[in-house]
Amino acid sequence: MSGTTHAHYRFTGPCTLVLAMLCAAPVWAGFEDGMAAYDRGDYATTLKEWRPLAERGDRTAQHHLAWLYLIGRGVPQDDEEALRWFRKAAEQGDSDAQTNLGSLYLLGDRIPQDYTEALKWLRPAAAQGNPTAQTKLGIMYEDGHGVPQDRVQAHMWFSLAAAEGSQLAGAFRDGLTKQMTPAQITEAQRLARESKPTK
Fold it and tell me: What is the DSSP string of 13-70?
């Protein structure tokens, strides 16, 4: 176990423009109305706009509806309901939902901790280039949580996340580098170069 203090509590947040733009054109109007309502604190309208989209299978609406349940906006706070909607979106390949679902299992403070489930969802999100998922995988490998402790793998994931713009991952990588041999660093850099996100 390394002495580094890791920020496990970072989730991929709700209501981002990038996620909203993933919606198909006919869905966009309702989703945009829900976002506007969320921004002004009208969570009842947000729920009214997003729930029908989520129930029809729109993964972005499912992910955002999960957030409403997770933080208790417009609905009673309900971890199980949040988990259910995150899972629906994650199963459709939404990398942010996969990251949030994996994070919940990794943390174990809202639901029972389960490293196997955490890996199940963080790996595909990381493979899509999600820097938060990549950072969390790096932490798991550095600390040996749910996987054998492996500094080379940890360094690789931190490097990939840093390349996606994560300053936190860059700091973790730099700290880890001081504990590695030159051969390990070279191998980690090679693995990072050869890894291609499946965006």
Answer: -SS-HHHHTTS-HHHHHHHHHHHHHHHTT-HHHHHHHHHHHHHTT-HHHHHHHHHHHH
| pLDDT, tens digit, 9 for 90 and up, residues 130-153 | 999 999 999 999 999 999 999 999
Is residue 124 within 8 A of residue 101, CB to CB? The reply is no
Token couple for 134 = 């990549």
pLDDT at 28: 60
Tally of CB atoms within 10 A around 102: 30
Over residues 153-189, the pLDDT tens digits come to: 999 999 999 999 999 999 999 999 999 999 999 999 9
Which contiguous run of DSSP H or E holds residue 10? none
How many whole angstroms separate alpha carbon 93 and alpha carbon 89?
7
Question: How many Cβ atoms sit within 10 Å of the Cβ of residue 178?
Answer: 6
Do residues 122 and 136 touch, judged by C-beta distance below 8 A? Answer: yes
Per-residue confidence (pLDDT) for residue 14, from 0 to 100: 46
Architecture of the 17-194 domain: Alpha Horseshoe (1.25)
> Rounded to an integer, what distance in angstroms lies between the CA atom of residue 127 and that of residue 135?
12
